[in-house]
Amino acid sequence: MKELTRSPIPIRASRGRRDERAENEQTGLMVAAEGEQMAKSGKGDEAELAVGAPLGHAMFGPLEATTLAGGFAALGDPVRLHLLSLIAAHPDDGVCVCDLVGPVGRSQPTVSHHLKVLRQAGLVLRERRGTWAWYRPVPERLAQLRAVLF
């Protein structure tokens, strides 16, 4: 009798819409929670300054640095920077992943990987429409990164 063995190839369960919504909400909640945490610290109006404080500002602490570094790290790759610029050009409607493959000159799995990194950094949100994923920017998160630089 032949003994059954496990396949060396791991099988991943597909993720449904509910998981995507929860992930998008979680990303938004993390950004909001950081703002609430600073407000609860009793710093009042100073806490609002910390989110967009310039690099030399005294309110720019380790927590803010860690939060912002994730966003800047995601933008450290030229492909991700290009993808974000393409997505940001369509803030209301969003952009289908199928329309992003050609302009960046990468394969669909590579584009999906880079979009996942941008999503995990809280820079874009994903919405399923039929079989395709549509991406749109998160203006609040982009404003945080912009405010630190200028």
Question: How would you describe this structure to a colleague?
Answer:
The chain is mostly helical. The chain has a single domain (17-149), classed as Orthogonal Bundle (Arc Repressor Mutant, subunit A). The protein has 7 helices and 3 strands; from the N terminus they run ααααβααββα. The chain has helices at residues 17-43, 45-51, 62-74, 78-88, 101-104, 108-120, 139-149; strands at 95-96, 124-129, 132-137. Strands 1-3-2 form a 3-stranded antiparallel β-sheet. Helix 1 crosses helix 2 and helix 4 (78-88) crosses helix 6. The longest helix has 27 residues, at 17-43. Residues 1-14 and 31-50 have low confidence and may be disordered.
> Termini distance?
71 Å
Q: Look at the structure and name the CATH superfamily.
A: Winged helix-like DNA-binding domain superfamily/Winged helix DNA-binding domain
What is the typical, i.e. mean, pLDDT? Answer: 75
Count of distinct structural domains: 1
Output the CATH topology: Arc Repressor Mutant, subunit A
Number of helices: 7
Strand portion: 5-15%
Structural class: mainly alpha
Element pattern in H and E: HHHHEHHEEH
Largest sheet: 3 strands, antiparallel
Strand order of the largest sheet: 1-3-2
Number of strands: 3
Instruction: Just name the CATH architecture.
Output: Orthogonal Bundle
Q: Helix proportion of residues, in percent?
A: 55-70%
CATH C-level category: Mainly Alpha
Shape: elongated
Low-confidence parts? 1-14, 31-50
Rg result: 19 Å
